[in-house]
Design goal:
The chain has about 290 residues and is α/β, with parallel strands linked by helices. It has helices at about 15-20, 30-45, 55-65, 80-110, 120-125, 125-140, 165-175, 210-215, 230-245, 260-265; strands spanning about 10-15, 50-55, 115-120, 145-150, 180-185, 190, 205, 205, 245-250, 270. Strands 3-4-2-1-5-9-10-8 form an 8-stranded mixed sheet, with helices on both faces. Strands 6-7 form a two-stranded antiparallel ribbon. It binds glutamic acid.
Length: about 290
């Protein structure tokens, strides 16, 4: 089954904040960023289109503005939702620029051109915006660029936000007709229950067809200010990717070499097979506001 992964031509890789920042400070983990960039450039050198969906803007921004300690987990009691939102959006503005500067520097070491694409839900919902976004991706990929995508956190408020980059990465994969989405996370893949709290939770290496039994495994597992997601958003992403005709692998980011191993067909992570729906329409997968 995994042999199929060797033939993939257009790959979206999603990496979360916790995988590219230091847990203690929220600052960028340069060693891991460097490895990530090397892996991605190598995929591209092998003749594939590559898109990176990277979180980390808020985390890096909080650190840069020296507010990481106070707001470490986003639960400063006195803060109302408006204060938290303002802070996150300001941190994202600072951090996104820093993050991109690091990506550009690291990619340039391999003569790899990169670009930044920031999106909101509105980019997908609006027909003209969606059309333009798709064209831009196509053009960048034709030019041999590796686009780095994030949510436009600085302007996205509740009504127009994806809210998490798991969903965003699946939306991007479907927008550009990618044939593989690699979701890198801090766990090995999907389990039948939360392995942190249930020792009997079993690992799921492969899902041929996503059904309700899989949805039941979804658990909200993270609640930090900087990162979002958890199992539930990964399963949402899996539904989008699969219905759009894109295979997906959820794997552990602890070893970034997993990226090339997955594409070599090695048994890593949870492999969710595409199950293309003829009536797939990207907008149907975004919550109504
Ligand atoms: N877009 C956010 C950031 O760059 C993270 C969202 C997520 O972790 O899913 O910091």
């Amino acid at each position: 089954m995994r042999e199929k992964l060797k033939t993939k031509k257009r790959i979206v890789v999603k990496i979360g904040s916790s995988s590219i920042t230091h847990k203690e400070t929220g600052g960028a983990d340069l060693i891991r960023l460097e490895k990530l960039v090397r892996e991605l450039t190598d995929l591209h050198n092998g003749g594939r289109d590559v898109v990176l969906v990277s979180s980390g803007a808020i985390s890096v921004g909080l650190k840069a503005a020296h507010i990481r300690d106070t707001y470490y987990d986003g639960t400063k009691k006195s803060d109302g939702p408006d204060e938290k939102l303002k802070l996150k959006q300001a941190a994202a503005a600072i951090g996104q620029a820093r993050l991109m500067m690091m990506y550009q520097k690291l990619f340039s070491e391999y003569n790899q051109t990169t670009a930044q694409i920031l999106m909101t839900k509105y980019t997908i919902v609006d027909n003209v915006n969606r059309f333009n976004a798709r064209n831009t991706f196509e053009e960048l990929l034709t030019l041999g660029v590796i686009p780095v995508v994030n949510e436009n956190d600085t302007i996205a408020t509740y009504e127009i936000e994806f809210g998490d980059n798991d969903t965003l990465s699946a939306i991007v994969a479907s927008l550009i007709d990618a044939d593989l989405l690699i979701l890198l996370s801090d766990i090995d893949g999907l389990y039948t229950d939360d392995p942190h709290s249930n020792r009997d939770a079993e690992f799921i290496p492969e899902i041929i067809k996503l059904d309700e039994s899989i949805d039941r495994f979804a658990k909200g597992t993270t609640g930090s200010l900087a990162g979002t997601g958890g199992m539930a958003t990964k399963i949402t992403a899996a539904h989008i990717a699969s219905a759009s005709g894109c295979d997906m692998v959820i794997a552990n980011a602890s070893d970034l070499g997993n990226i090339h191993r997955i594409v070599n067909g090695d048994d890593i992570g949870t492999y969710i097979h595409a199950d293309k729906r003829s009536d797939f329409f990207i907008e149907d997968y975004l919550d109504e506001e």
